[in-house]
Structures are given as C-alpha cells and as structure tokens.
Design goal:
With 280 residues, the protein is an alpha+beta fold. Helix content is 49%, strand content 15%. The strands form two sheets. It has a four-stranded antiparallel beta sheet with strand order 4-3-6-5. Helix 1 packs across helix 5, helix 2 packs across helix 3 and helix 3 packs across helix 5.
C-alpha cells in the first residue's frame, strides 16, 4: 500500500549522514535566532530543524505539523541518549568529528538513531517459533487477497470530515474524486489499489483492514507522523495456498516490523509523559 508508516520514517531518519557540535550540553538546534516552533524540556525546536526534517524525510512535500512531531520525538530520544551516556561512545564521537561540516541539526538524528538501535531495535527478537505461531494463527488471512480503495490525508481534520460524510451516506468514490480532483470524465482512479496480497498491506493496519466486510469502510488509520488513511474493502479472493516454509522470511520480517512499531510507540510515549513539551 502506498504511503509511509512510522517504521519507514524511523528508518529513513537512520540513513541520514550526520554530525554536529561537540559539546553535549548544547542543544541539538543549530541556530537559536530562528523562529521557535516548540520546546522540549526547554530546548527550542526551530524552523531550521523542521526544514531539515522535511528535506530528509518528507522530500518535496512539506508537512510541517508531521515534521515538527518527528523532530520532537527525535529530541526526546536525543536527550534520552545523553542520559544513557551514548554521547561518550567512541564511534559517536568519531562520527561527529569526521563529519563536522554537516548541519548541526543532524546531531539529533544520529543520537535518535542510536537510541532507537540500542534501546528498542536490539531488544526485538523474532524466533522461528514466533513466526510459525503467527503463521498458523493467520493462515486464512495470509492467503486472502483484498481489493482495496484508499483515501490519504496529511491532517486529521479533513480525514474526520471525509469519514463523517461517508458514515451518513456519501459514496466513497465521490469523496475520493473530490479529494483527488478527479472528475467523472477521468478514468484514472488513483484511490483504487486493486487486489493486494497480505504482505503488501502495512502490518500495523492488517488487523483492522482484514476485519472489514465487502463494502465496509474502515475508521481512520495511521497517525500524525505517518499520515491518515481511510480504507474501503471492495472485495476479497483466495490466493494460492502457501506453506510456512514459503512465507517464513516474510512473516518474520513483518512480525519484527510490527513489534518494532509497538515498542517504539511505547518508548516515545513514556518519554513524552515525563517531558515538558510546548508547541508555540
């Protein structure tokens, strides 16, 4: 399914080449004269930080609210990394000194990547038995292909408005045409995804989507970081029978993605509860 979920965003951030200032007491923000958009435990998040995040994660489609939350999460992880002493790691210090020509905003991303790897990803282990148990419990689901239609929104409010109209009788296709600007004369229907196999449906949406009956529309899926989606199940069909041996690698990877997402959300939620966050 098109679109980025939270796992993709996390991993995209991890691929950024990074550096920054050497003093651990300095905030990750590089220019305090920039417009301040938020504060995390009194550390300012500036327009420069968000612009950097937009360029690296959301490419040419700036989504300021989503990127601000991304940076807030990264700053929380950065501050947690300092508490854990990860800034003293020789490889971290070496990377900073080697790449000191890079924007200082990248310092936050590098530390967030290290916290993610050491405190979250390293603790996720999917065994052969975990994968087999998941496969056995979900064989029917894994074999079933779904014909889906999907609406995508960057913000929650328009998604809520669209879903409200659908719930009171508006046709999904009418809302989709309005959202995409397509007229009835146009044959292109980008919201129609056609039949999709289980391993192409985002793992964090699988349970909600596979519970739908033909003609039913989902609640709003996703988050501020990943964007919001509304999905309609047009129909379903049985695909070829598959064995665990055929699906083992795919199941293990997708189950790991799911556990990573759950663990990341728990970790960041706890940091947010203990932090002072102000959006300005």
């Amino acid at each position: 399914m098109p679109g980025k979920n939270l796992i993709v965003i996390i991993l995209a951030s991890a691929l950024v080449v990074v550096a920054g200032c050497q003093d651990k007491q300095q905030p990750a923000t590089s220019n305090n004269t920039q417009k301040v958009l938020a504060k995390v435990n009194d550390t300012p998040i500036t327009a420069t930080d968000v612009d950097f995040q937009v360029q690296k994660t959301h490419e040419n489609t700036p989504k300021i609210n989503r990127s601000l939350d991304d940076v807030i999460n990264q700053e929380l992880l950065y501050q947690q990394g300092i508490k854990l002493g990860l800034d003293k790691d020789p490889s971290y210090r070496a990377k900073l000194s080697q790449l000191n020509s890079q924007p200082a905003e990248a310092k936050r991303i590098e530390m967030a990547r290290r916290v993610f790897n050491t405190q979250i990803a390293s603790k996720i282990n999917i065994s052969f038995m975990d994968a087999r148990d998941y496969f056995n419990k979900n064989q029917a689901q894994i074999r079933t292909e779904l014909h889906l239609e999907m609406l995508k929104f960057d913000e929650l409010q328009p998604a809520q408005e669209a879903l409200k109209k659908i719930r009171v009788g508006a046709r999904f296709e009418e809302i989709a045409r309005t959202a995409t600007g397509n007229t009835p004369a146009k044959k292109n229907e980008p919201w129609d995804l056609g039949f999709m196999k289980w391993d192409k449906v985002p793992i964090d949406f699988v349970d909600q989507i596979y519970k739908l009956k033909p003609g039913e529309v989902s609640d709003i899926l996703g988050s501020r970081q990943a964007g919001y989606q509304i999905v309609k199940l047009v129909g379903s069909r049985k695909g070829p029978a598959v064995s665990f041996e055929q699906m083992q690698g795919i199941v293990m990877n997708r189950l790991r993605d799911l556990r990573l997402l759950e663990a990341y959300n728990r970790y960041v939620d706890q940091l947010r509860k203990n932090a002072k966050i102000e959006k300005i």
